[in-house]
Specification:
The protein is α+β, with helices and mostly antiparallel strands. Helix content is 22%, strand content 30%. The strands form three sheets. An eight-stranded mixed β-sheet has the order 1-2-3-6-10-9-8-7, sandwiched between helices.
């Protein structure tokens, strides 16, 4: 697999500047880990509670946080999903994390989806562009927010590790699910996830695409989106969803897609 040396990533900081950078963030509700060059998850900022790990990670990225910086939280009050949706999870039962990625790969959202799906198990599928499903129920959501002119992105992941059906709001009980584990599995799951993310964010694009296609939850399903409806016909070489419509094939590169 191709990899980019950490020393060449834009916006990385020296150990001295990184220590100064973290110093202002040492509070009673914060746990900070040390830097391990080149590994995702280092340094790590863990919060008992926050509004959104993605918001915190974006702030850190703007401030010069190095590649691989991880923000985790036991609980968040305003977790964000795609299209401005709110991500809901009970405290301590979901993996809530956001990573700063410098010089992000072209297929970063799909690479993150593959990493989460592999972690979730052999039956997990990827609903383009970045939801992970088990038995048709959403167990994880991924939100990638990028500032490409500054060569960084933040990958936010919410994974229902130990969320039970009765933990969910009534309106989500038919569409959301979990891994069926216990709360003490959240941290080991994070360790495994970081390993998969390290692997797949460094993988060649074609390998990422093959992995997505092998777990495509929409393939040959009837779908609809803001511009129309049709039959999902796979993922192209740019990571776009191909949809066969009555007037021909269209390639969707963004936006919300629903099963018809």
């Amino acid at each position: 697999m191709a990899s980019s040396p950490t020393s060449k990533r834009a916006g990385t900081t020296s150990r001295g500047s990184c220590r100064r950078w973290w110093r202002t963030r040492r509070r009673a509700d914060v746990r900070v880990s040390v830097v391990v060059d080149g590994l995702l998850g280092h340094p790590r900022l863990h919060l008992r509670a926050t509004d959104s790990t993605n918001t915190r990670a974006r702030e850190l990225a703007v401030g010069g946080a190095p590649h691989g910086t991880l923000v985790t939280a036991r609980e968040q009050s305003a977790g964000r999903g795609r299209q401005g949706r709110h991500w809901t999870a009970p405290a301590g039962r979901a993996l809530l994390c956001s990573l700063v990625i410098r010089d992000p790969p072209r297929l970063l959202p799909l690479a993150a989806g593959v990493a989460v799906a592999l972690l979730a198990g052999p039956s997990a599928q990827i609903k383009w562009p970045n939801d992970v499903l088990i038995a048709g129920r959403k167990v994880a959501g991924i939100l990638v927010e990028a500032r490409l002119q500054d060569r960084w992105a933040v990958v936010g992941i919410g994974l229902n590790v130990a969320v039970r059906e009765y933990d969910l709001p009534l309106e989500l009980r038919g569409s959301a699910g979990g891994l069926g584990l216990e709360p003490d599995a959240v941290e080991p799951t994070l360790v495994r996830l970081l390993g998969e993310l390290q692997r797949w964010t460094e993988a060649p694009a074609e390998q990422v695409l093959d992995a997505v296609r092998s777990r495509d939850a929409l393939l040959e399903r009837e779908v609809r989106w803001a511009g129309g409806r049709g039959t999902a016909a796979g993922i192209d070489g740019e990571g776009r969803l191909i949809v066969a419509t009555e007037t021909g094939r269209v390639a969707l590169d963004a936006g919300e897609v629903h099963l018809a």
